[in-house]
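Give me the fold.
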Amino acid sequence: MSLHKIFLPILASSLLLGASGAMAQSPIDVYRNSMREIHGTARAQAMSNAVGALGADPTAVSVNPAGIGLYRSSEVTFGFNVGHVKSSTNWQDKEGTDMSKWVGNLDHLSIIFPVTNPYLASSDWRVVLGASMSSLYDYDRDYEMRSVNPEYSLSEYIANKATLFGAPYKTLGNMSSSPYFLGTMAYNGGFIETRPGYDNIYVPATYAAIDPFAPDKYAESNVAYLKPDAGRLNVSEKGARKMYDFTIGGNWADKVYFGATLRTTSSTYARSSVYREDFHYTYKPNYNVENQVYYTELGNSLTVAGGTVGASFGLMAAVGDFGRIGISYNTPQFGRYNEVFYTTTQWYNNNRTNGKGELEPLYTNGTDDMTNTYNLVLPGDLTASAMVFLGGYGMVTYDFNWRNLGSARLQGSDFQDANQFLKEDYGSQMTHRVGLEIRPVSGFYLRAGYSYSDGGLKSEGIRPQEGNVMAYDYIASGAITDAVMRDSYQSISAGVGCRLFGRTTLDLAYVRGKASERVFPFPGTGEVKDQSGQVLAPGISSEGAAMSTVTDRMVASLTFRF
């Protein structure tokens, strides 16, 4: 067993500090800000972004800045997209409701212009400048997952974490002095309570006597956790991450190409979620709890805004008349993000209704809007590219991209353990992209492409176990206990391009992207023991749902050359 599995419960507790202060950051926050998909001009998207050695395309320049050296004239490009996003889940062999929505935005805007200089006019050197905006990732999607009779409840997870802290229940119920934010919310919301006879051992509110009339009804042999009858998670996400490039480059004798880019990104993200668990009492009728039905809800809202800054460098060389090869490096990106969040917990009973017959919460607890700011470093990446000409009729392209997600870092002394977690559980992520462009007649182009990227996870600590069960804790983001783990992303694309009039061209592309992921409503935990080794709370595991998110997108780009 690795060290992070031993110390992870303590690590998670140390990061979930402060009620009015900070929301804990986690690897999930890092990964969300580093997710990628096919982007850019319609030409580049039709070839699934396998354009690192293509050049003379704004997106090709974003992959390898050396591609700007192939420009011989100025141009302006506008790109738009409209798409449909559909998410499907399967949790314990129960299909969730398919959730879909339409999305669309300005996908790309760029300007490229060669530098006119009399000192370069008669030489083999050429210098070109460019600026562009491109949509890197769209967060827009909704998804729902449902289960029947899950083995463990969210209340059990929270109770274990609260017991780990050993916080007296009197302070646990006080938001301002609580060392465990989620525990405070759950205690005030009726999810957990102190075990009878103990001040610092927490149990789910479903902890009850099997036989309430036994001489010692709270003896360990006479108590059990009431298991949920059903669980349901609903999540809605909105937002986008955009990239802004400022590039300078050129070439020597149309043989060697070079370029450098100053890159910034901006990100907006909004997320709302509700996790509900339904319970039904089955105890003896004379205990007066027969046919009692209730459910608990944990609701979270999060909005994030921020951005990063970094650089990119590239080289490319012509290989005779056969094609080109290239290599580019994106430096790590330094980011800063501001977030606003709030949390609610509610406990409903079927005996408590309003005048309209609607259920009203018996317990409810919510926060005001809380704010937090954090810094992070996203990993750099390396891309190797090749292009082969198909006579005078087109070309075949290939890109290989590598980055180490485990090198990402949350900045600050408070995140040392979280960064160790990132290092141990995230690793190399590899992406393969293949593209094809054919010119059957002058002024008309046919294109196709395919890409595949793995999820970048490496250790069993965060990877689901056999049967899609997570037995160990991961670091939750504050009171947001659910998390998405990406297994892979792949795309298939096709498109056409044609000359409209003069030097104006129209490019169209269709892209189908599919993200395969696993969603967990809350982490698992190991047994909680005291110093003598006595088990205070049993270990639990969390069974996840398989989720598929399919995006169908149409892209149009219009390019004016002058």
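The first strand starts at residue 75 and ends at 91.
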